């Protein structure tokens, strides 16, 4: 009689171990990314040319501080117009909007910035001109 509970415990432990191994083997690139396993997410999405996979691949490269690879992945994001815009926006993010910084502050100062945040002042209506932006943000 005493061997039955130990057998039951052994069977339960074995089943739990098998379930854990199976769950780990079926991780999607997104799950790997969310778990902080960025290189594994990149490897798992290899060969998947869908816009979502390329975008996730670019984000993974950003997390690994591989900016050139991130820009390359984001530049490949295609599909419909919305995905193309997402890809182009991500390229600008990866580049820290360096072109805009150079335009506003000149080449030397624009390249010296380490961090930059881009945002849209007004989604609807009239877009501000360069002069308006300088008045709004005189720094």
Question: Which spans have pLDDT < 50 for at least 5 consecutive residues?
Answer: none
Number of domains: 1
- Helix-strand string: HHHHHHHHH
Rg computed from alpha carbons, rounded to a whole number of angstroms: 24 Å
| Distance from first to last alpha carbon | 81 Å
Hey, roughly how much beta strand do the residues contain?
Answer: under 5%
**Number of separate helices:** 9
Shape, principal axes of CA atoms: elongated
Largest sheet geometry: none
The counted number of beta strands is: 0
Mean pLDDT over the residues: 79
Counting helices, strands and paired strands, the structural category is: mainly alpha
* Helix fraction by DSSP (H/I, runs of at least 4): 55-70%
Keywords:
139 residues; mainly alpha
Protein model, in words:
The chain has 139 residues and is an all-alpha fold. The protein has one domain. It is 67% helix and 0% strand. It has 9 helices and no strands. Helix 3 (38-44) runs antiparallel to helix 4 (51-63), helix 4 packs antiparallel against helix 5 and helix 5 (67-75) packs antiparallel against helix 6. It is elongated.
Question: What's the arrangement of secondary structure elements?
Answer:
Elements: H1 3-25, H2 29-34, H3 38-44, H4 51-63, H5 67-75, H6 81-94, H7 98-105, H8 107-112, H9 130-136
Helix pairs in contact: 3-4, 4-5, 4-6, 5-6
Short note summarizing the structure:
The chain has helices at residues 3-25, 29-34, 38-44, 51-63, 67-75, 81-94, 98-105, 107-112, 130-136. With 139 residues, the chain is mainly alpha-helical. The chain has one domain (29-136).
């Amino acid at each position: 009689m005493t061997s039955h509970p130990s057998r039951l415990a052994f069977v339960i432990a074995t089943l739990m171990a098998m379930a854990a191994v199976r769950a780990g083997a079926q991780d999607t690139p997104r799950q790997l990314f969310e778990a902080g396993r960025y290189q594994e997410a990149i490897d798992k999405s290899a060969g998947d040319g869908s816009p979502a996979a390329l975008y996730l691949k670019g984000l993974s490269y950003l997390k690994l501080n591989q900016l050139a690879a991130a820009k390359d992945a984001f530049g490949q994001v295609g599909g419909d117009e919305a995905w193309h815009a997402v890809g182009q926006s991500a390229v600008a993010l990866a580049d820290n909007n360096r072109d805009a910084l150079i335009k506003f502050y000149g080449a030397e100062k624009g390249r010296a910035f380490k961090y930059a945040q881009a945002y849209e002042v007004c989604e609807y209506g009239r877009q501000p001109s360069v002069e308006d932006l300088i008045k709004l943000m005189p720094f």
